[in-house]
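Person: Please comment on this record:
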Amino acid sequence: MGRDRPSAVPPAGERRDDRILAATRVLAVVLVPILLTAFAILYAFPADTGRLFAWTIRPELTPMVLASAYLGGGWFFVRVVHESRWARVSAGLLSVTLFAALLGVATVIHWDRFNHGHLAFWLWAALYFTAPFLVVATWGANQRVAAPPRPEEVCVGPVARVVVATGAGLALVQGLVMFVLPSLMIPVWPWLLTPLTCRVVGAVFCLGSAGLVVLVDRRWVRLRLMVEVEVVMLALILVGMLRARGDLYPDRPLTWLLLGGFIATLVASLWLWRVMAALERGLSEG
């Protein structure tokens, strides 16, 4: 099966010990409070985005969906700070880079929609104009000390691998279509979107691309944190859909398809996590 392939040959004397570099941890420490603050604003006060956020977001379900990405990202970067192995976190940084890059592009495209007189906007712009470069540079530097697979590591089975890769691929395609062709998605989407919010929600979907790591490496150690983040995000989105159920269009087929897909994905992710955790326990006890 697939294995990690180093992105570059390390300098002489560089240790391939799979450690997380200090620069990677520093970046995580900087991002965690930003992400958690944004989550608190958008999820607790979705009706007050005009006063508290970079631009006014309507209806209330959209800021809660974006907030789910922020809490998922907060959990991810907290784990980056505390993890000892690069393999556990490496897959997530590339999807974060894509997410941040898309939001940076959306900011430029819809510049006039933002509240330029609000400090939150300039924090938003500074974050998304710099984060894609910082995150991908950090990933590249840390990848140079990535270690080869360990023979005793638990691997995802072939069926689960196909399911995960298919779901990740569909999320990526969905997100890119929403970003590139908002006029195609807005008329059928389960709740009201504008071109800007369609692109933002599309960027959130693109975070699911982290699951594509199973195509090159079937070790559970590469996927576990991605599944945890997905569970956090899906649970928050489903609660948000319940809170803002009045924002949903029940007569649109995609409403029920999306709701069913979210529930099915959440259940499948929890089942996979439970099965793989049991296999890890069995290996450690054996």
In short: The two ends are 24 Å apart (CA to CA).
